[in-house]
């Protein structure tokens, strides 16, 4: 008998989750972004998230959710303020299983509940199509300095309410 696909379960971030979040970000950048970024850009990006103490402060200061499949944490996302997706990473082994969608949908609902009219994200070239499918529209192209490297990304936004003021997500 075929097993139904698992639906990701979500829970709040705890400080003890920092090592798994750092590992997920590293694996995601190393294994998924090679078509869009050079190896040296990937290394600089990974290094920017490798300091677990700094990452713990960043994630702890935001509304951060973790996604699990079969009790294994496979992704995380954070909402900065009421209206900005700061980080969204999924382990390469969990790509295509609804993890990023579940995390993004939850942050959209939480942002709307906090009164945000729109959600903004600085989106990597690798994640651009994912965010477009979720209704985000590109606003501007950016170049971000990391150590001696420059990484391109795109500022994208999504309206969280329709013209009648009702939530869209």
Q: How large, in whole angstroms, is the Cα Rg?
A: 16 Å
Structural class: alpha+beta
Beta-strand content: 25-35%
User: Which fold does the CATH topology refer to?
Assistant: Aminopeptidase
First-residue to last-residue Cα separation: 34 Å
Strand order of the largest sheet: 1-2-3-4-5-7-6
The CATH homology group name: Gcn5-related N-acetyltransferase (GNAT)
**Which sequence of SSEs, written as H and E, runs from N to C?**
EHHHEEEHEHEE
Shape: globular
Helix content range:
25-40%
DSSP summary: helix tally:
5
* Mean pLDDT over the full residue set: 93
CATH architecture type: 3-Layer(aba) Sandwich
- Count of distinct strands: 7
**How would a textbook summarize the main sheet?**
7 strands, mixed
Number of domains: 1
CATH top level class name: Alpha Beta
Characterization of the model:
- The structure is a single chain.
- The chain is of the alpha+beta class and 169 residues long.
- It has helices at 18-32, 39-50, 52-60, 99-113, 128-133, and strands at residues 9-12, 63-69, 72-80, 84-90, 118-124, 137-146, 149-159.
- It has five helices and seven strands.
- A seven-stranded mixed β-sheet has the order 1-2-3-4-5-7-6.
- Helix 1 (18-32) runs antiparallel to helix 2.
- The model has no long low-confidence stretch (mean pLDDT 93).
């Amino acid at each position: 008998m075929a097993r139904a696909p698992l639906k990701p379960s979500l829970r709040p971030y705890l400080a003890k989750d920092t090592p798994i979040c750092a590992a997920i970000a590293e694996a995601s950048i190393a294994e998924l972004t090679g078509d869009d970024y050079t190896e040296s850009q990937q290394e600089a990006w990974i290094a920017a998230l490798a300091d677990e103490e700094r990452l713990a402060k960043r994630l702890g200061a935001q509304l951060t959710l973790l996604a699990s499949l079969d009790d294994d944490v496979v992704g995380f996302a954070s909402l900065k303020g009421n209206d900005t997706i700061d980080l969204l990473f999924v382990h390469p082994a969990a790509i295509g299983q609804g993890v990023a969608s579940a995390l993004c949908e939850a942050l959209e609902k939480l942002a709307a509940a906090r009164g945000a009219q729109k959600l903004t994200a600085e989106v990597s070239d690798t994640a651009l199509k994912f965010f477009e499918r979720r209704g985000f529209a590109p606003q501007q192209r950016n170049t971000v300095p990391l150590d001696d490297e420059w990484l391109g990304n795109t500022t994208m936004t999504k309206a969280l309410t329709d013209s009648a003021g009702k939530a869209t997500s």
